[in-house]
User: Fold these one by one.
Assistant:
Number 1:
Amino acid sequence: MKKLRRIGISCAPVVVFICALSISAQWNKKPYSEWSEKDVKKVLNDSPWGQTQVYSDTSNEFKRGVSRNALGTADNSTGDYSAVHLNIRIRLLSSKPVRQAFSRLIELMQKGSVPDQLSAQLKGFVDKDFGPYVVVAVDADANESKSEIREFRTLMDSRALADLKLNTYLSGKGGERVYIAQYLPPQKDNLGAKFIFPRMVNGEPFIGPDTNELRFYSEFSEKFKLDMRFKVKDMLVDGKLEY
């Protein structure tokens, strides 16, 4: 399992854009080397291989303040009630489209030609063979709540396999569950935390073209329960099932 720690890339940091996605991207109609920023965001956050689970908390956002009336005297007033939203990004890192999106994002950040050494690193990352493993990368961002994002990132840094092995799994054919084999906290590759699962069950892939959906589930903490479903029929790329 030691070799799993080399899944990331040690090159320029990846910045994951945090905008909500409702765009009609062309990422599935052109080479990834021609993807725009919108195309990249679409693949990472709203595609067959990358989805966003929004955590909302409305329990403690009722704010009270003091305002001034027309006479200049103080009035006690209550502020607006607003929810806290945390975007939890759940991505199938072992799928080539997700790695292509991260690679393309780094290229776009270069604002010009990509150095040969970096280009070679990115190509190696895209072409990496994940062998008998399925890797789910999880990260998070938030527009409003710095405390929520700090809490989630602290969890990502502190979780261990022992915390997750009984309640973190992938399910596929007939709801059969495959439980987590390894957990890697976030590294300097900016890909997020990595949840690693066996790809094979009884010598065969537990996901096939006849599988309806791939579900990722993790009771990451009592507060944060991750639950995302990916439609398998949409994961085909050039006739190959990518996950």
Number 2:
Amino acid sequence: MTPPKTSLIFLLCVVASLLSCGGGHGSEEKYFLVSTNVQVPYWQTASLGFTQGARDLKVRYEFVGPDTYDPAAEQQAFEKALSTKPTGILISAADAKLLTTDIDKAIASGVPVVTIDADAPDSKRLFFIGTNNYQAGLAGGHRLAKELKGKGNVVVFTMPDQANLQERLRGYRDALETTPQVKITQVVDIKGDPRIAFDNATQIIGKQRDKVDAFVCLEALAGKEVATVLSNNGIKNKTVVAMDTDPDTLEWIRKGVIVATVSQKPYTMAYFGLMMLDDLYHRKLNNLQTNWATDSFAPIPAFVDTGSTLIDSSNVDSFLQQKKSATDNSK
């Protein structure tokens, strides 16, 4: 049976409307991604995912945050974004305690907030999207033990106040329980400053060269600094396990100075996070302030694990090709 002409025209108009405006999105919609440091490659990759998501949805967006690791400045960026009455906010909480009140204020005002990468679990944020950091630490720890053949002293570079890095270190420690002769002998707080990593690595190889067998970097900044120090001093018998996929880190893997790095998925975190915020805007929850994490029938998850993987000499080139394709598609 041929459908009535008026019905067919109506259906075509509806489909065309959805396609042309990204599924009924309005000009009032604007989403923010608030980062801990907009200049580092990790967050540039997240920005690519956020940008691609916004283009797919045809919505306005803005990527904001400090140019250096500065939790107070990130808080100010969040407050400024909230003052514009945004449709939704993604944020990586550099200092969860500092941001909790602001996140709760946003939720109370009806602005959905989702944390990515680094959580603020005591806040009323709706849920967290990111890496299972404990599992990432386990994977790094098992690789470390294998490289050291079950024996060696390890120095860890981290930022101890960040909950996600605490979980990574816990994963490393648990992984090393099966190889008690691999010992973490020192934990260095780099305070978000790569120069601290460089200076401490220089001091260590100067005074403790024979007492340190490996370096573990739990965040993106330190790996390339440690590798540079080792290379500059002609030291080739140390194991370095890094974190994330900074271009210099990947190049040191290709050169054989860094044995492996744990790769997260910041592109996926930001892309999927924006999709979830958009869905929350168009299919609003009855109450943003409900503690959905304790509700067995919650319409949203408590945690979305975006996964992680080890990058080493066997797959670094394929990773770089994937990154190039994602970058080209976002232009």
Number 3:
Amino acid sequence: MESIIEIQNLKKSFGTNKVLADISLKVNKGENLVILGKSGTGKSVLIKCIVRLIDADEGTVMVFGKKMEDLDERELNEIRKKMGFLFQSAALYDSLSVRENLEFPLRTLPDISTEDANKRVEEALQNVDLKEAIEKMPSELSGGMRKRVGLARSLILKPEIMFYDEPTTGLDPVTSRGISQLIVSVRKKYNTSSIIITHDIECARITADRVMVIENGLCIAEGTFDEVSKSENNNVKAFFQ
């Protein structure tokens, strides 16, 4: 299978705190990789190293076959344009309407017409079942609706890679399940390759093609959800109990 992201022996410390001790992973085209781990185990740092918001101390990160550490700022920005992010907070601009929030990333497309922009906004909201909220303000939306708008905004540039950082945090079980199912439908519709960071086992069960468990900056289990859930490692068992 075609590899979209490939990491070899990644290490990152902050002072004496070794956050990533030695991480290697691969994400194939059209695959959802779920990374499970307790808070502070380096899951978010891993994503920041992949997109080079921070530089790793050692190791290599390959994205679309290119070494991220070798790229200049222009080349980095070209690759980042192919990436989408859904953060815990959805990161919406509270002073902008839903429509205006979705139009914001379209400013990076210099030749886009008003008609095409409107079409993209409506399509993105349709894909997250939220077209009726187009003129609402973020303050009028529930937590689950804000997450959906955040996802629609991430999808409007049709990314090839999606990063989900704790996508179900703070949501009730029914809404969490809906967001998890939406992640699956996004993968099918856009053929995205995704890394999903979570400690929500139900989210992992619904979304994962593969699961990787990180503990103390190391991968301690990897496989399908069923394979990892049957691990004999006590630290892995703790997630599933």
